[in-house]
Amino acid sequence: MDPAENHIPDEHRRPRWLPQDHRVHQEWLSGIVNDVENSAKELHPVIKEFRDIIEGETRLYLLFTSMFDQIPNKEPYTKNPGGQRQIRSYEHMLKVLNHMLTTAPSWNEKSERVGLVGLPINAMLDWPMGTQSGFAIFLDPEVNAMIKKVLNAWGEYLSSPASAAVLDTHSSGWFGEIGKKDLTATANVGESSHAFEDLFVCDPTAKHYGFNSWDHFFTRTFREGVRPVAGPDDPNVIANAPVTGKIVKAFVKDGTYYSEPQFEEFSETHGADESGESTAQGYITATATRAIIFIEADNPAIGLMVFVGVGMAEVSTCQITVVEGQHIAKGDEIGKFHFGGSTHTLLFNKNVDVQGFPEPGREHNVP
């Protein structure tokens, strides 16, 4: 294989949760759009409700209409050189959403597609989010309440046995040769060489490795001892409990799902930032759906601290698995994001000396 075939020019690179090449994003989305273009499939009840809200309120109708009009009708925002928008209207958006509600994300290992569309709804809204009207829409409480209903309906499908169909060994399956290899490489974080079945609780002899749904697969657990906790007496940025202590308070705060800062707006001289919410993680710690857990650390030098799990786009079902008054050890599970991982932040008293954070830009995550 010619290495040049896998080279991605800088101008085509994308945030890590979308394909690394934005041309892949365009090709993928165009395929979905083509699938639903002439579809006569009846709208899901939650999509009908979304349509009725848009069409029943003049303010929302004007915002949704102008949101798509504000996307430049030029490359790279179109699906072809003829200038046709990938998603051309809110009606078209609803039809694509309707299609996605009964579709689980699949792996694609085609050589020129260096990456995958990990968040398909986010990919669909990538350009609309960057418009002025999109900024207003995705901050609107009524719209976010409706998006939550849509994501919950999709979550029902992703928790159903039908969604496990993508967990096969075909080229578009997550247990295909390259898909499985990539999953394993990511989990080993460059520090070990365990096989998938040695990393995660699963049954490689069973259908779909024993996972009965997409959600079951994406919330899989590590086998005991695979991820030992480093520095158990120090505060640390890890996916589970960051310190040993008592849960003082824990709750989920509803918020936005697809809101980006307004500085991402299109202009005559530049397009919207393709990194979208990835570059706006500080912003969404104050706006997105969040799991907020107050922990009184046993170590008096740390005291009261807060773990904030931030739902990003589709990854907004923040489930807390601890209760107030419970004592936890560093590394214990305190919650999970459904549909994979997201981001988080830790808050400490201003007098706490917190250091030892990983340098940004690392190739692998720090367990």
Word description of this protein:
29% of the residues lie in helices and 10% in strands. It has 367 residues and is an alpha+beta fold. Helix 2 (45-56) runs antiparallel to helix 7. The model is unreliable at 1-21, 80-84 and 109-117 (pLDDT under 50).
List the helices and strands and how they pair.
Elements: H1 22-37, H2 45-56, H3 58-69, H4 90-100, H5 120-124, H6 132-137, H7 141-158, H8 177-188, H9 196-199, H10 214-218, E1 245-253, H11 281-284, E2 290-297, E3 304-310, E4 318-320, E5 327-328, E6 335-337, E7 343-347
Antiparallel strand pairs: 1-2, 1-5, 2-3, 3-7, 4-6
Helix pairs in contact: 1-4, 2-3, 2-7
Shape: globular
Largest sheet: 5 strands, antiparallel
The averaged pLDDT comes out at: 78
Order of helices and strands: HHHHHHHHHHEHEEEEEE
User: What's the gyration radius in Å?
Assistant: 21 Å
Give the proportion of residues in helices: 25-40%
Secondary structure tally, helices: 11
> Kindly, what is the distance between the CA atoms of the first and last residues, rounded to a whole number of angstroms?
33 Å
Q: What would you call the structural class?
A: alpha+beta
Strand order of the largest sheet: 5-1-2-3-7
Beta fraction of the residues?
5-15%
Unreliable residue runs = 1-21, 80-84, 109-117
In total, the number of strands is 7
